[in-house]
């Protein structure tokens, strides 16, 4: 983690992501870049839109179709389904609160058996994680029933589809990620 005295500003972070996501993007470079920003709620508050019934995906930047940057808001106890990234890399930075990532092995035969947990990883504010399909499938959740959490996700190339998995059977279905808000504006429901 970077020393807060050497931390990038929010605007500089967004500019650097745009600058570095032009050609062949290297995951380690994006991990270092996200580590160089110390989370400050005043910077990203306008993008943080919560829903009491589900976690929300809030689009920050489309990245000229080279990446997308999404702020995800997790209410108390909320979590994602088990999912892949359909060829995208994902670098996630915890902006506030704590999150738990559960990694799963790819089902050997879809629809035949319960999915196998590989490991659990807990993350706190300003920690950065990386996932892609070679690492495995995962579920992300806010383990707290008292506090919310917020995370920033950089997907490159942009995530347009993914597969969600049933933990009991390993069956999957294709789904298209949607956004609860775009650029700080909540979409009409």
UniProtKB/TrEMBL annotation:
Co-factor binding comment: Binds 1 Fe cation per subunit.
EC number: 1.13.11.20
CDD domains found in the cross-reference section: cupin_CDO (cd10548)
Keyword Transferase recorded: no
Catalytic activity field: L-cysteine + O2 = 3-sulfino-L-alanine + H(+)
Crosslink (3'-(S-cysteinyl)-tyrosine (Cys-Tyr)) position: 90-155
Keyword Iron assigned: yes
GO biological process, one term: taurine biosynthetic process
Keywords, in A-Z order: Dioxygenase, Iron, Metal-binding, Oxidoreductase, Thioether bond
UniProt pathway annotation: Organosulfur biosynthesis; taurine biosynthesis; hypotaurine from L-cysteine: step 1/2
SUPFAM superfamilies: RmlC-like cupins
Superkingdom field: Eukaryota
Cofactor(s) listed in the protein's UniProt record: Fe cation
Entry-linked InterPro entries: CDO_1, RmlC-like_jellyroll, RmlC_Cupin_sf
UniProt: Fe cation binding residues: 83, 85, 138
GO MF term set: cysteine dioxygenase activity; ferrous iron binding
Pfam families: CDO_I
PANTHER family: CYSTEINE DIOXYGENASE, CYSTEINE DIOXYGENASE TYPE 1
Protein family according to the UniProt entry: Belongs to the cysteine dioxygenase family.
UniProt-recorded name of the protein: Cysteine dioxygenase
Gene coding for it: 100637150
